[in-house]
Each structure stands twice: as C-alpha cells, then as structure tokens.
Amino acid sequence: MVTLKAPYVAGFLGFREAPPLLQTLEKLKNELPDLMPQVLFVDGNGLFHSRECGLACHLGVQADLPCVGVAKNLLHLDGVVKSDEHQSQSSSKPVYVSVGHRISLATAVSLTHRCCLYRVPEPIRQADLRSREYLRSHILAPDVS
Fold it and tell me: Taxonomically, which superkingdom (predicted)?
C-alpha cells in the first residue's frame, strides 16, 4: 500500500502515479530480477493524451521499458476519430490503446488483444481486482471489536 503524495490533477496522472510504480519496479529489479516485466500495461493513456505524454509515456520513459496505454475513455484529441478505437471481441465497449514507450501501435494493439479475456487486458484487470479486494479487506472493512 502506498500513499500518493501528489494531488489528482486531470491530465497529469503520470506525476501522481509514476513515482510509486517506479519504486515498485526498482524493488522488483533488485530483489527478483527474473520477474521483471518485458512490457508494461497502464490503465491510462500514452500518446492519446492532450499533451501527447500520458502515464504510459511517462512511466515507460522513466522505467525504460516498453509500455502500452489502455484507456476506457477517449479524450478529445485533434486528429483522432472514433474509428481509431479498438475493442475486444467479447465486449461492446471499446478500450483505447495507445503507444507509451518503445513499442509500435500495431504491437501494442496485438498484445492488448492477446491479453484480453474481457474488456480490459488481464494484467490491468487483475491489478484492479486485487487492489479493490485489498481495500475491501484492509481499509474499508468495518471494525469488528
């Protein structure tokens, strides 16, 4: 469990969420280097960002790892139209895949499709499920005294 130090500011998620993710990657690299990921999936944008540098870019550059941004909502961006969306075969709601760092859009989309059992790629989905379960059992659990 980490405490985020920066406030939430729309469009600047990388400054809030990248530091604890980088600390986690550094700890993994030092303690269990064989488990270092070959690619990162981020619940957020990469180049599909108003400043063309979303969390996936921010984290990928700092970690120097290939990174894919997967967002559930498309931000309004000049030159990006709804037909650029990608959806899994089992869901009617699309996710928006964007390049984060050291990966092509074609490879990012291919990896995303291969990792999707449901709407969101499994690495992101499992992280979300497990973090919510942790919060339910450790933080939000009623005091039973």
Answer: Eukaryota
Tell me, yes or no, whether 69 lies in a domain.
yes
Give this prediction's pTM. Answer: 0.88
DSSP of the chain, one letter per residue? -----SPP-TT-HHHHHHHHHHHHHHHHHHH-GGG--SSEEEES-SSSSTTS--HHHHHHHHHTS-EEEEESSPPP-TT--GGG-B--TT-SS-BEEEEEES--HHHHHHHHHHT-SSSS-HHHHHHHHHHHHHIIIIISSPP--
The token pair at 18 is 């990248």
Give the residue numbers spanning the domain of 133: 13-139
Question: What is the domain count for the chain?
Answer: 1
Task: Name the nearest CA neighbour of 29 among 67, 69, 64.
Answer: 64
**pLDDT values of the chain reduced to their tens digit, one per residue, 145 residues:** 888 989 999 889 999 999 999 999 999 999 999 999 999 999 999 998 888 899 999 999 999 999 999 999 877 777 665 544 555 566 678 999 999 999 999 999 999 999 999 999 999 999 999 999 999 998 886 665 5
